[in-house]
Amino acid sequence: MICMDNLDIRCKPSFLHLGLMLIVHGLAVVCVFLVQQPLWLELMVVLFAAISLLHFGRLSVLRHPLAISRIQADSNHWQITLVNGDTRQVRQSGEVLVWPWLVVAVFRDKAGFYPMVLMPDSLSEFDHRRSRIYFLLYCFQG
């Protein structure tokens, strides 16, 4: 029997997350051009979509220094390891979204916020199932 009072998972780059972001950002740009706004507004939306895609794309493929590469937790504490090697004691901030194919959470400490998106291709099948169960059981406790 597996004990569910702790969690230790290592994240891999998620190309499924990157693909979904490409589709959403692309659709946003297409919609702006379809409603025929002024050219300056269309160019601003394209610029903001490109900046957003670059930032969040780097997070999803673990190329950003603040991307989470490892999550460790017990029933009282959360600890994340960033790609740059820093280990931080954090706490879960806000709501956690847990679906069969997706887990979204935000962690925070005194230095800032750390978003985390777990897609099926960023973990083994066992770790993805286990993380969903763990977040459902422990994410709302102190």
Q: How would you describe the overall organization of this protein?
A:
The chain has 142 residues and is an alpha+beta fold. It is built from three helices and seven strands. It has helices at 15-34, 39-60, 125-138; strands at 6-10, 68-74, 78-82, 87-92, 97-99, 102-109, 112-118. Strands 1, 2, 3, 4, 5, 6 and 7 form a seven-stranded antiparallel sheet that branches. A hairpin with a 4-residue loop joins β3 (78-82) and β4 (87-92). α1 (15-34) packs antiparallel against α2 (39-60). It is elongated, with a radius of gyration of 17 Å. The protein starts with 5 loop residues before the first strand and ends with a helix.
Explain briefly what this protein structure is.
This protein has 142 residues and is α+β, with helices and mostly antiparallel strands. 39% of the residues lie in helices and 29% in strands.
